[in-house]
UniProtKB/TrEMBL annotation:
The ABC transmembrane type-1 domain, residue ranges: 88-268
Name under which the protein is recorded: Sulfonate transport system permease protein
Source organism phylogeny: Bacteria, Pseudomonadati, Pseudomonadota, Alphaproteobacteria, Hyphomicrobiales
Family label: Belongs to the binding-protein-dependent transport system permease family.
Keywords for this protein: Cell membrane, Membrane, Transmembrane, Transmembrane helix, Transport
Alphabetized Gene3D superfamilies for the sequence: MetI-like
Keyword Secreted carried by entry: no
Localization terms from the record: Cell membrane
Length: 287
């Protein structure tokens, strides 16, 4: 395939970015991306070291905050018995199911509202009203509707996931550069081509930002859901440990939530780099 053929297949936002690439490549790289990754881990590692020293010297009692080494030993013990992996798998399945359901509905509504002012008038105000309601305020009603089984937990996750994706999808579509739209009309693109080559590619950075936010919200919603009537899951493990004053297990669950959040955000960033390789701020030239 020639360069001309490749260029003809790119979305119009990608064409604009592709023409800007030579300038981006000429910018000197001060430091490599690997150095930034190493620098980002300095603060967490330093915090763990200080925490371990304070715990080992007795400045922090185990009942208040156990040492990281104690938390690691607890994790290995629970992993050996299989209970930790079982609870982790249960929570991951709940989060995945809620994310798929809530994300699909939110993306469809965002597309609809982004393209149609009529849909915005019919849907947006109701969505914004529900978004303003705190999770804990909805919890009693959700329990009445779904009980304390899996449906209640998946519903809360889906609800939490939906709003960031809906809002960012709508904003992404509305904020597409009007000059690109005009260029598409001048080139005689059909409505379908305008959507697939201009609007959706132009909205993709905002949509993926919504995905990143929703991944964090999914775990926040799951923590709330698993504190009520759960028989398995990371949240259940934390609540059960609280009853027996097992602070090492409680801290372990917090660390697990943090690690899952970092892993999910890394996946979202990788998705951004793959899907937005043409964009100077996300592709290799922009980094």
């Amino acid at each position: 395939m020639t360069h001309a053929d490749h260029t003809a297949r790119l979305p119009l936002p990608a064409l604009a970015a592709d023409r800007a690439q030579p300038r981006a490549r000429r910018r000197p790289a001060i430091v490599g991306p690997r150095l930034f990754i190493l620098l980002s881990w300095i603060a967490p590692v330093l915090l763990v070291v200080i925490w371990e020293v304070l715990a080992q010297t007795g400045f922090v009692t185990p009942q208040v905050l156990p040492a990281p080494s104690k938390v690691v030993r607890t994790a290995l013990k629970l992993a050996t018995t299989g209970s930790l992996l079982e609870d982790l798998g249960t929570s991951l399945l709940r989060a995945a199911a809620g994310f798929i359901i809530g994300g699909t509905i939110a993306f469809a509504l965002g597309i609809l509202v982004g393209f149609s002012r009529l849909a915005e008038a019919l849907v947006d105000r109701s969505v914004q009203m529900v978004r303003a309601i705190p999770f804990l305020a909805l919890l009693p009603l959700v329990i009445v509707w779904f009980g304390v089984g899996e449906a209640q937990k998946i519903f809360l996750v889906a609800l939490g996931v939906a709003f960031p994706i809906y809002i960012n999808t709508t904003l992404g579509i509305r904020q597409v550069d009007p000059k690109l739209m005009e260029l598409g009309r001048v080139q005689g693109l059909s409505t379908r081509q305008m959507i697939t080559r201009i609007i959706l590619p132009g909205a993709l950075p905002s949509i993926l930002t919504g995905v990143r936010y929703s991944l964090a919200t999914a775990w926040l919603a799951l923590v709330v859901a698993e504190t009520i009537g759960a028989q398995a899951g990371i949240g259940f493990l934390a609540m059960d440990a609280r009853e027996f004053l097992r602070t090492d297990v409680v801290v372990l669950t917090i660390v697990i939530y943090a690690l899952i959040g970092v892993a999910a955000d890394s996946v979202a960033r990788l998705l951004e780099r793959r899907l937005l390789a043409w964009h100077p701020n996300f592709g290799g030239a922009g980094r």
